[in-house]
Every structure is written in structure tokens, then in C-alpha cells.
Amino acid sequence: MQRRDAILKIMEYIEDELVVCNIGFPSRELYDIEDRKENFYMIGSMGLASSIGLGLALSQPDKDIVVIDGDGALLMNMGSLVTVNACSPRNLTWIVINNGAYGSTGNQETYAKDLDLVEIGKSVGLKSYNFFEIDLKRKIKNDSCNLIVFNCKPGNSQAPIIDLTPEEIKNRFMKVIEK
Amino acid sequence: MDSTEAIYNGLKDAGINFIVSVPCVNLSKLLNMIDEDDEIIHIPVTREEEGIGLCAGAYLGGKRTAILMQNSGLGNSINALKSLTELYGFPLIMVMSHRGTEGENICGQVPMGQSTPLILEAMNFNFFKPGNPEAAYEDIRNSWELSEEQEKPVSVLLEIKYW
Lengths: 179, 163
Fold this sequence. Notes:
The structure holds 2 protein chains of 2 kinds.
Chain A: H1 3-11, E1 18-21, H2 25-34, E2 39-41, H3 49-59, E3 65-70, H4 71-76, H5 79-87, E4 92-98, E5 101-102, E6 108-109, H6 117-124, E7 127-130, H7 136-141, E8 146-151, H8 166-178
Parallel strand pairs in A: 1-2, 1-3, 3-4, 4-8, 7-8
Antiparallel strand pairs in A: 5-6
Chain B: H1 3-13, E1 18-21, H2 28-35, E2 41-44, H3 48-60, E3 65-70, H4 72-88, E4 92-98, H5 110-122, E5 127-128, H6 133-150, E6 153-159
Helix pairs in contact in B: 1-2, 1-6, 3-4
């Protein structure tokens, strides 16, 4: 299973949740699988998906927020693990797809290839699970902040470039929140 | 209105209700005031760049956002300020304790302190350098609207002699 299959699997559980998605192929594949107004596609600032998701979760406590992150991006912003844990908003679900590679730049290996990210999450206090051992919908809906690790193989699909301007992504996302 | 109250009042009157911070000794009294304010969500972050991400998410969620940090944090945030905040046109107030300015006694602060205004100019971001509390209040209060209008962060640099 590669990242696109992982995102496809994740999206089976998504209804009206707000989704913040990591830069590069992850966002392109999500766009290709299921473009929706509730998706915030990152076009820059690698590493900050979980931070954006945290700010959103704290500002919109009545909405469920799902972050689709990657292992390379997590390694770039590991401080986010402790900040997310310190805040622990009940409406935040942080999914890290760990394919052990910097997929968007040519699948160079990451150090996460040999890391157990579930154990790392637990070690800072975050409720952390392997995707294949839980029901994602229940974790999204329960009363705790969760880190979900989805291990898969490296590889990119043929997903096209996202045909939306940053302004369009922002405006439709904010409009759907206001509703 | 002392130097800290001026900043606090400016932020309040600008409607700021979501603040992230990395501490500076000159900001400590301000951070305590913000912590005691129930109308403001205050999240200390591990690194300034992370805070830029939080502010982006909070703005999407309807908040008015600010970051409090040392000017060293600008260096830690440059890419996010460009490829997130400016790219999507998010407003943001950056209140910076501007170290390495006249009166600095830690030599390590000087190189970044000297370059900070030049970096902001190169980034094409507006900034203010108020010299007294009255000016700081006005600049901060007006920064949110200016930032919304320009769809870019606006900074307020508070040099050592300001305090």
C-alpha cells in the first residue's frame, strides 16, 4: 500500500470533518481522490500541517479537525508533538502517513523509516494508535486528541497539480466553516 | 500607560483574541497579562515557525491573531511567513522584542538585531518602530486592519530603549 491508497482509506471515514493536508503529493492525491471545500491544501510551509490543524481545532471547538501529515514533515516540526499534547483539543485527529520517504522530492529515505511513531507519540503523552488497530471514525468522534500512524510503502501516484489558487482554497474553506 | 500596558491595550483594541508566543525577558509581564485574560487564547509554542502555523489555522477558524517573540524568531519563521501567511493572504500582527539594539549587553543578539529591519524590508513586510508607549499603542491597534488590507503580516519592533 502506498500513500494514495492510505489517503483513499482515510477518506472513507470522512464526512463533514475539516481536513488539513500536508504539502506536495499528499495534497495532490487528496485533491485527486476527493476535492471538497472542507479540504485545506498546503502549498508551502512543509511541517506545519499539525500546527495549522491545532490552531483551527482551538478556534473551532465544535468542529472535528483531521490532519493528514507525513513522516518527513513530522520530523521537520517535532516540537508540534509536545505543543499538540499540551493543548490536546478533543476535536483534533492527527494522522501521520509514514512511508519512510520524502515522496514529493523523489522518495529519498527519511529517518522515520526505522522509527515507531506510535511509541514516540505515546512517549510525549499523546494517545497514539496504529491505523490498522482502530476504527478511525470512533477516534475522530471521541473526546480525546489522537495521533494515528498509518504505515505504508513509498511511491507517488499520477495525481495532477491542484488547479486552485491559494486564495480559492482559503476562501471556500473559510466559507464552509462560517456556515 | 506603561510600556507593557500600551502593547496589551493595543492588542485588545485591535480585537486580537489568539496569541502564540516564544518568551523574551522583555515580554514577561505582557505574557502574564495575556495569560490572565479569558478572552484571549494564548498558546506558548516550541519554535516561532510552529506559531505561524497555529496562527494560520486560528485565522481560518475566525480568530484575530498575533505572535509575541524575540526578533530572533523572525529568522526561525521566514519560510512559513512567505509560503503560508503571505501565500494565502492571512493577516497577522508580529510583536517583536527587538534585541541587539542600543543598550544590548549580550553580544550574540547583535548580528540578528542589526539585520532584522533589513530582513523585513527584503520580505516586503510593513513594520513599525514605536519609541514610546503612546506610539506603540497606536501602531499595534492599527496593525490588524493594515495587515488585513495588505494580506500580509505587519510587525511592531520594540527596541531595548523602548522598555
